[in-house]
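Hi P.,

Sorry for the delay on this. The queue was packed all week, but I finally got your sequence through. Input first:
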Amino acid sequence: MPVLMNVSVFAASVVIAVTACDTPGGGTTAINAAPTDTSAATATTPADPDTAVVADTTAVTADDTAAELEPEVAPPTGLAILGHGSHVADDLVVEPLVSARDGLEEPRGAAFNPNVRDDIDELWIADASGAMVIWQKATDAAPVIRRHHGMGTEHFMPSPVALAFSTIGTVATIQETDWVTQPRSPEDFMGPTLFPADSSAFDGDSATHLDMLHNSPNSTGITSDHDNAFWVFDGYHGSITYYDFHADHGPGGDDHSDGTIVRWVEGQVRRVPGVSSNLALAQDGTLFIADTGNARIATLDTHAGTRGGAIGPNYDDAEMWRRTGVDTVTWVDMAALGAPEPTGLVLRDGLVFVSERTTSRVYAFGASGDVVDWVDLAPVVPAGQLGAITFDRQGRLVVIDVAGARVLRIAPAAH
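Then the structure:
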């Protein structure tokens, strides 16, 4: 834990040091010089008022010099959004956004829709009960909250635990599911589903889905790559799996044959049931992974490796293969921090923000994996309940309380 210096003690020590050093005007000379015999001077020389004034002025000059050189009180250190380095939530303002009374049952993933107008904030919340709860707030208007669950959701969005928006007006969900979700389909017939990012055209059902690919049951995280391509934390295969829908088949269609599925680093990541494992892709192609089951933040070079052999089962008649010659790298050992179950992960302002479930802490890591700051949110979200995190346009932190069925927004207190 970083050692924080008491600012008032530090300031006092600087004043003393300045007073003891040479300063213009000779003020400190009298302090450092040996005492003089003032009684002899008094006996032979009448007191001179002008001399006394000069002596008094010199003393004041020394004091003024010290005051001028005394540093101002240092501003708070650390990140404002994480409590200015205090590691406690006392310096944060917590605001509830969505709760069970709004239809939340088991919130697991959250993301703001980048496709809406600038005067609207729209937060999509993946609820593992089989729904999407959408919170929408226009400027100077009360928020509107709707729960979306339509006919066929039990297959197309049966247990959504994470979502990611594309750059072309679509959104993909991933499901933590390994059971039969529709007649005549096997238990492992599951993967990411593509929907329109327009909340008025979305219901999480068969009629509004745009595409679906089926090779990753029990998945727990997803992030966008480009267009309709996404990276998935594939809990069934212990892999990171790349999906590209290419052109979608349109609302309610079923032709998946133009899809591409590539399985990377099979067996190198591990799911924890009931805990989301979020991903984020940096501009240089580095994929950051909350590898929950291995108690670490891992990275994957998405430009590395070569094409390997085919994989299956191929339920979609899609192009499917394995990526070889590449491995994940442990970037941060979360167990060494006493925070063994990383779950939420977001890239922002050159930092990697990570939420950890068992301690309810949120960490910020620098480019080399060093801890820049962290905050303990256990008084706000009890330990064992903290889930995914995201940020709104104003830079406020949004966190999920999974067991409490709440979504909270956190901002720094005014200073």
